[in-house]
Amino acid sequence: MLSLALSKDGFHVWTASSGQEGLQVLGTSEPFDVCVTDVRMPGMDGLAFIEEGCRLGPKAPTFIAMSAYGDEALAVEALRRGAFDYISKPFEPAELSLKLKLVVERKNLGREGEERPTRSRPSPRVAPERAGRPPPGLEEVVSAAPAMQSIFRLVRKVADFPTTVLITGETGTGKERIAGAIHSEGRRRGSPFVAINCGAIPENLLESELFGYVKGAFTDAKEDRPGLFESAHGGTLFLDEVAELGLNLQVKLLRALVEKEIRRVGDNRTIPVDVRVIAATAKPMDALVAQGAFREDLYYRLNVVRVELPPLRDRREDIPVLARHFVAQLGDRLGLARASINDEALERLHGYDWPGNVRELENALERALVLSEGDGRITEADLDHRFDPDAGAPRVGKGLDPLVEADELSLKVVIPKVERILIRRALERTGGNRTKASILLGISHRALLYKLKEHDIK
Length: 458
Fold this sequence. Notes:
Shape: globular
Number of domains: 3
CATH superfamily of the largest domain: P-loop containing nucleotide triphosphate hydrolases
Structural class: alpha/beta
Number of helices: 20
Radius of gyration: 22 Å
């Protein structure tokens, strides 16, 4: 049934009844773009299948793991074994189809980038577009707001220098896009731009992701593997949600910035690296330093140049501009030639407060395009109910647990409570579908997985 639905969406689908048969198909046929596999299979399970499949070299596809709700640990292990993403069961075929289209697009971008000369040190864990095609420059960052024009001028000033930059702003304001623009506007544009979300990976895995490891460093370390610092050599390493780093990793990051060299996990040798570091956070760094949760010396190293991004509600003139831009962009990506949005829908978007900022706007428009009744022509009827005039603008804390609304002022106490409440609410609203819940929450699918594990939400 699933293969039939995907075939109707234009995919050429092959099926295999076991992991062993799947490996045989992958190894003897023309390379596949994507392989979707269950993590629970008889015989060779999905984890072993993914790991073996990643060893096929040029024939290795991008793996997407399927896991049942409650299999968070297996999904995390699948990502560690080499899966690019995962999808929670049960899901609609259209949901998987959309995910596959995005993966194929990423692979196509990577192929385009391979035609360009680069000084990248390839790593199997770096997404294709990171190692090849540079991120968009300022010409693709859409804004008419005066506040953003000032930021664009600052970006152009700092782009050519190796100075560290700290980008601050609420979740969804476009911090990674600005980091990519700094890279692409400067002298390192022909070298790798490597990004990692420090809050989406457990600390014990994050250290080996950043610095690499040598064979025998831990139980599953069967070969030497470079980290992201080495993958970004000559280019830029973007550390999103840098405030989530533990104190131990903060020390190692500080050493890498000061000494311009790293040491792989389990190795005594140092490796020189030429990497520009750009960091970003949505948290108040000054407060974290004052609380002792973030090292002051590292903060000063990162905060040489600071770029503060305003929330979308403070630059409402950008809402219709961004909406039309995203509709055109998403229409091309989804194959909707008639993609458009009418004035009534734009008016409703303009009246919303956008707590999730630009990312929430893009996600809302993607949802509207996929679910629209008019072949991608968005009307006010296609928008989510939160944009209804009588729904009221969202306010942080509205309707939250009384424990959160009380006089408690400690971020360490309040933030975990708010996260648990909002995650549960999103899961309830989406019937337990974590992909849709992550869209509502304005975080990545993978980040939600770790949040579920962190808060022990089943």
